[in-house]
Design a protein that fits this description.
Elements (H helix, E strand, L loop, with lengths): L4 E7 L5 H9 L6 E4 L9 H4 L4 H4 L9 E2 L12 E2 L21 H9 L7 H11 E3 L13 E5 L6 H11 L15 E4 L1 E2 L1 E2 L2 E2 L2 H6 L8 E4 L2 E9 L2 E9 L2 E13 L2 H11 L2 E2 L1 H6 L6 E2 L11 E2 L1 E6 L6 H4 L2 H12 L13 E5 L10 E6 L3 E4 L2 E4 L4 E8 L7 E3 L10 E3 L6 H18 L8 E6 L7 H11 L1 E2 L29 E3 L14 H25 L1
Parallel strand pairs: 1-2, 1-14, 2-11, 5-6, 14-28, 15-16
Antiparallel strand pairs: 3-4, 6-8, 7-19, 9-10, 12-13, 13-14, 17-27, 18-23, 18-26, 19-20, 20-23, 21-22, 24-25
Helix pairs in contact: 1-14, 5-14
Length: about 550
């Protein structure tokens, strides 16, 4: 298929885009072009190995390796913002954690005026996309393309953590993606038989042989082609060669929360004054493009562990690592086959809340950096990522120039909302309470970070400003809604532009309560379903 004309063009082959490419091409009726700026996904060795996250998190060959702008909430630091630059997008480089979020997250979207986005509306899509053996049939899918499994317990450490949580009033809840999120459990992960289940592997690979689907890697989107207020295609380049593709039906941008608003702005869609300052002619005013950026800001609490063989640090160094690699290759139980965060806890930081508002994700290891390279430390310990689930601090993402190759300015504005400051403090103190409870307390050495010297609210917040990181969940920069700052409607159509939709985490009006990969895949499923439903309605009307 050499034609430069297609029915649908999907810009980005990430968590949502790969889903769209599969679903829109499934019938064979439509010609679909899927553009990806990065390289191969499922076939890349380190992407298939769960522990390969460490090899990709700083690798510009498969990662955009963005950095945020310094601000007060980050102690004037530039914070690393990894994003997948390969087929499958961030689903190919992430920690493989599978969290739908809470029912109230989606009910809130619906209450904001987004019809069809309540939990009851999206639950069938979550079930359709997954294959999971646990939980109840009411909430969990069994036959979807995405394999979801429970993380295995490789040491008694995990049972001790679950027992300690019970001591402080946190129940064991093995299916936090079911009826109720609250509790502690082993992580549900997009891993099957020791292999990562990215959308490249689960959605694109089965569709590759379809004659009506073209997947173009190394394709850098430069600008949309607009004819008046209609999008008719896209200009892009491959290895510096300028190309153009036309869409007879629709263009769907699925480039993620950083690159989707970037492409809109490069195309003259956004805030007119900002665009003019960047040397771009404004073609369509949408003040919300690039605004409403939200993410989970996470202090990493660290503890030394005195019990032998409790953490992955011992297994991941020296001859033990060779043994773990052999077990992995032979299909045995190895930490190389697990998510980096195999244990998580959802809880309420204060009374009067109906649902959890914070989480602690446990990584059973300590890391260190040597010459900017991350590796397992020789010291044995654990790292706890602490998050406020529904952060209210709002930032922005905007282009710096008209050059498509220049990274945009990412301004998180972390800790600007009082609720985020108080929530993080409550959550950190809950983490300390957990580590002081039996039977975990008996194997804890010292609190490495922040450390016993940090006790007051002011001391802890200052430490957070200077040390916390994002948990890689940027959302909201092309938010869905009907207000003046909304970019897309509840059908994900860009306001005021025909033939153009956005489908990825950027459309989320607010954060979901947990990792954002599962909701992003769901958004891809829902967008495809809405497009195909429109086609069916047109056919019936004709």
């Amino acid at each position: 298929m050499d034609s430069d004309s297609y029915d649908y063009i999907v810009v980005g082959a990430g968590s949502a885009g790969a889903v769209l490419a599969n679903r829109l091409s499934a019938s064979g009726e439509f010609r679909v072009l899927c553009l990806e700026a990065g390289t191969e996904g499922s076939g890349y060795f380190w992407s298939r190995v769960p522990a390969g996250v460490a090899k990709m998190i700083d690798n510009p060959a498969v990662n955009w390796c963005y950095n945020s702008e310094p601000d007060e909430g980050s102690g004037q630091r530039e914070i690393e913002v990894p994003r997948g630059k390969m087929l499958g997008g961030s689903s190919s480089i992430n920690g493989m954690v599978f969290v739908r979020g809470q029912a109230q997250d989606y009910d809130h979207w619906a209450q904001l005026g987004n019809r069809g986005w309540s939990y009851q509306d999206v639950l069938p899509l979550f079930k359709q996309m997954e294959s999971y053996e646990g939980g109840s049939d009411e909430f969990r899918g069994r036959e979807g393309p995405l394999k979801v499994t429970d993380s295995g317990k490789l040491s008694p450490f995990f049972d001790k953590m679950i027992a300690a949580a019970a001591k402080i009033g946190i129940k064991h809840n093995p299916d936090y993606n079911g009826a109720d999120q609250e509790g502690i459990a082993m992580t549900q992960a997009t891993i099957n038989k020791g292999r990562r289940q990215s959308t490249a592997y689960c959605y694109l690979d089965p569709a590759r042989s379809r004659p009506n689907l073209k997947i173009q890697t190394g394709a850098m989107g430069e600008s949309l082609i607009l004819e008046g207020k209609t999008c008719v295609g896209i200009r892009y380049s491959v290895n510096g060669e300028a190309r153009e593709a036309r869409a007879t039906r629709e263009v769907v941008i699925s480039s993620g929360s950083i690159n989707s608003p970037k492409l809109l702005e490069l195309s003259g869609i956004g805030q007119p004054e900002l665009l003019r300052e960047r040397g771009i002619e404004p073609l369509h005013e949408l003040p919300g493009v690039g605004e409403n950026l939200r993410d989970h800001y996470s202090p990493r609490m660290k503890y030394s562990i005195t019990e032998n063989d409790a953490t992955f640090n011992e297994r991941g160094n020296g001859l033990r690592l060779v043994g773990e690699a052999m077990k992995y290759v032979l299909g045995g139980k190895s930490f190389l086959a697990l998510s980096a965060v195999p244990l998580r806890m959802y809880f309420r930081t204060r009374g009067g809340l109906e649902t959890p508002d914070a989480t602690i994700s446990v990584m059973p290891f300590l890391t260190e950096r040597v010459n900017r390279v991350r590796r397992l430390a020789k010291e044995c310990g654990i790292t706890m990522n602490v998050n406020v689930l529904r952060s209210e601090s709002i930032g922005s993402i905007h282009i710096k120039s008209a050059d498509p190759a220049e990274p945009p300015a990412i301004r998180f504005n972390f800790l600007s909302a009082e609720m985020d400051r108080t929530g993080i403090l409550h959550a950190m103190r809950k983490g300390r309470e957990l580590m002081a409870a039996s039977p975990i307390a008996e194997i804890v050495g010292e609190e490495i970070a922040p450390g016993a010297a940090y006790q007051t609210d002011e001391e802890l917040l200052e430490w957070v400003r200077n040390n916390a990181e994002t948990t890689y969940h940027p959302i909201g920069t092309c938010k869905m809604g009907s207000d003046t700052m909304a970019v897309v409607d509840d059908q994900l159509r860009v306001h005021g532009i025909k033939g153009l939709r956005v489908a990825d985490a950027s459309i989320m009006p607010t954060l979901t309560s947990g990792n954002t990969n599962a909701p992003s895949i769901m958004i891809g499923e829902k967008c495809a379903a809405m497009i195909l439903a429109n086609v069916a309605a047109e056919t019936k009307a004709a």
